[in-house]
Predict the structure.
Amino acid sequence: MTQDEPKAMNTQRAAAFFRQPVWSRLLDAIYEKYIAQGRIVGQVVLHACTAEEQREIARFLKKRLSSDDTLIVRLGDFQRALNESGFPCELAALLAALYPQRSHVTRPQARERRVQAHQRFYDDLSAQALELPAEAAGQRWLLLGTHGRDYLFRRYKNETPAFQEELLLSVHNVVDALNHLPTPPAYERFSLFAQRISGDPHYLDAQSFTGRLFLHALQDLADLAHSQSSEPAIDGEDTQSTGEAAPMLAKHGDLEEEDTAPSREREQQRHLLYYEAGLLTDTLSSTVAAFQLARAEDAAGQPDPLITYAGSRVLVLPLRQLLAWEKLVPASKHVYLFENPQVFEDIVDELQQRTISGDDARHKAWPTLICTAGWPSVAAIRLLNLLTEADPAITLHYSGDFDLPGLRIAAYLQKCYPAHCRLWHLDASSYLAALHHRSASFDSNDLAALQRLPVQFASLAAAMQEQGRKAYQEGISHHLLYDITEL
């Protein structure tokens, strides 16, 4: 017989003894106390004890107990009585034998295990960053990004080990993708890039967990780059060259990010993030309409006859075409941007008519007009980048609807091009001129959101809140035409 066999036999004899119904309430209470404490300390209280419970407990503990029906039993006293009984054993072993289906991990043990598991998870996340070269994109994201190591640790530290293993694999692949992004000015098709990184062309799609993680990483890197390159902000507003400081990613599964932006805005922002990282998602359906461009050149400096032959026609330019141009020159120092296609077309119609009829001898000097058709597409951003790079002195005049989406576009373009973009008839007087007595009312959410616009919209937002109704660019189209033809 081994040394442990008598202990095991005693434990089984003790368990058999305490399985008697008279002991069930006391042993249940002792189990709960021991699991909570992790040590043989403290006491348990039994209320409304029967005479049989009082008698058996007093006999086992070999001490006189209170005569009322409430009994107080110290765990230390119970262990001593157990040691002096005919089946001496440890309380923990007795509880394990008595309740084999229950967990016997005490709370202190659980806390210690949780701390150790947290530390392992944090170390595993850190290792992925520290094994990379200094200033590698993946390392910068993990160590400095809003959704990097510290966020991932806080968000997923209590997940199962299996989930954390999957997460670490996703992080590894995202880091690998960040470290192998195309080098500007080179571009790569998004699905081909995902295939090269993972063997699956859909691995980085925004609908997948890894794709959402990759998108957050790109946003974090863009924010880090903008924060380093931006000049000091005015009135608490951050400036940046190509994006907004506000969150623009929707809630997706486990990666939570508050966002109230319209779906088209989120989609265009997502495509822009990919584009700025050198990844092309769709260069055909991303388009922008332009009127009166002066000249376009390819990488070799050769002019593109498309612009020459276009004359006074409207060009609907896909991103694919814009990527082929290294230089794009506007027809004027003042470029006019329209949110709404029909206003843009109406004014183009008038300018073309004047050109055909010869009523205006200045028709060859019509300025460049651009239509964003709502939130600017990647093609629109590429076009504006080319124009501002070709002539740093140009001014972009933006006009849009007097509603929340229109003002968000205006604020976005001013952040993208702070040295160039100016508001064009986006003021209180123009709003009142555009207002119609049957215009739709703002809802409470839009009215509250108007207060969060940048300070340059303060007087306009106040007028819109006072009137409580939306107005549209169509209501001031004659003012826009006058500016273009008379200035």
